[in-house]
Amino acid sequence: FAYSDNYLIDVKFGVIVDVEASRAIRQAEVGAAKTMIERTEERFGLKPERLVGDTAYGAAPMLNWLVEEKGIAPHIPVFDKSKRDDGTFSRSDFRYDPTGDVYHCPGGKRLGTSGTVHEGKTLLYRASKLDCDVCPLKPQCCPKEPSRKIPRDIHEHARDIARSIAGTEGFEFSRHQRKKIEMNFAHLKRILKLGRLRLRGPQGAQDEFVLAAIAQNLRRFASLVARPPPAQALRSA
DNA sequence: ACTGCAGGTCAGCAAACCAG
DNA sequence: CTGGTTTGCTGACCTGCAGT
Questions:
Q1: What stretches pass through the bilayer (predicted)?
Q2: Residue A171 and residue A130 share a domain
Q3: Within 10 A of A149 (CB to CB), how many other CB atoms are there?
Q4: Which residues pair with residue A160 across a beta bridge?
Q5: Do residues A137 and A106 lie in contact, with contact meaning Cβ atoms separated by under 8 Å?
Q6: Is residue A209 a contact partner of residue A19, using CB atoms and an 8 Å limit?
Q7: What is the Cα–Cα distance from A116 to A55, expressed in whole angstroms?
Q8: pLDDT value of position A40
Q9: In angstroms, how far is B6 C1' from A155 CA?
Q10: Among residues A52, A120, A203, A223, which one has the fewest Cβ atoms lying within 10 Å of its Cβ?
Q11: A158 CA – B14 C1', rounded, Å
């Protein structure tokens, strides 16, 4: 039975600001991230401008929570499966029109939605069969179906924002910072020998993780005091 | 290397709908 | 009433990732 050690870390100075043990499954880790962000806001009045994370945090509900509820910029790769590689049009070939809430296909036709939310998360935008039947682009679009449909997550807006950040210079900088942060976890296992926990249960895991975080922060503080980082050194790293 | 899981898209069917 | 279109639904399938 495994636990994950989740840290909320200030990327500028590498200081751990919160710790949360969770089950070693993604949903739980995402939940831990939310818990830590809210707790840190409550305790210290600190709220990050951006959150750096891997694709595990790139699922639609998390992105929506960050963007819509917290106003935090998601520097997170978007979990995106909409690209097709069989030669037919991908969703990105369809243009979304937010004012009319419709997609426009490469042939210029509209795809509307009935507004029904499937599985609690997806809207389907469908083309009219009448349009598709006579469309010269049909072989590249929906060769096996009478009409094309485009799934769109109800939180697609948040995903769009995350997508627009990905690939920017700021995003690359964040990614680099994240790499450095990952060293904390290697350190945990190798130096602090936290590969295996000694205390039992979730509370035991939480306690060990907190102690480890304290130890790591003390080391960090010591090195920060000894060698205060000039701002440009942080930047060029 | 293999496997299971999680988040997601795709395809196709049948029921509902609707205009003539 | 009828035949075609739209809609809801569901299982298959895809893919990255982490645990073993």
A1: none
A2: no
A3: 14
A4: none
A5: yes
A6: yes
A7: 28
A8: 92
A9: 18
A10: A120
A11: 35
Angle between helices A201-226 and A169-190 (to 10 degrees): 110
Same domain? For A100 and A137 the reply is: yes
Phi, psi of A138 (to 5 degrees): -50, -40
Judge whether residue A237 has pLDDT over 50. Answer: no
Residue A144: CB less than 7 A from any atom in strand B: yes
pLDDT tens digit string along A97-135? 887 788 888 888 888 888 777 767 778 888 888 888 888
What is the reported pTM? 0.82
Which residue's CA lies closest to nucleotide C15 at its C1' atom?
A: A81
User: Whole domain around residue A141: which residue ranges?
Assistant: 91-153
Looking at mean pLDDT, say which of A40-44, A146-150, A190-194 comes out highest. Answer: A40-44
Closest among A49, A39, A69, A88 to A170, alpha carbons compared: A49
**Statement to judge: residues A220 and A123 lie in one domain:** no
Which nucleotide, over all strands, has the C1' atom closest to the CA of A149?
A: B10
Domain limit, last residue, from A101, A132, A153: A153
- The CA-atom distances, in angstroms, between A130 and each of A106, A110, A135, A147 are 16, 12, 9, 8
Is the pLDDT at A79 greater than 90? The verdict is no
If asked whether residues A227 and A121 sit together in one domain, one would say no
Domain count, chain A: 2
Same domain, A146 and A170: no
Do A207 and A228 fall into the same domain? yes
pLDDT for position A236 = 38
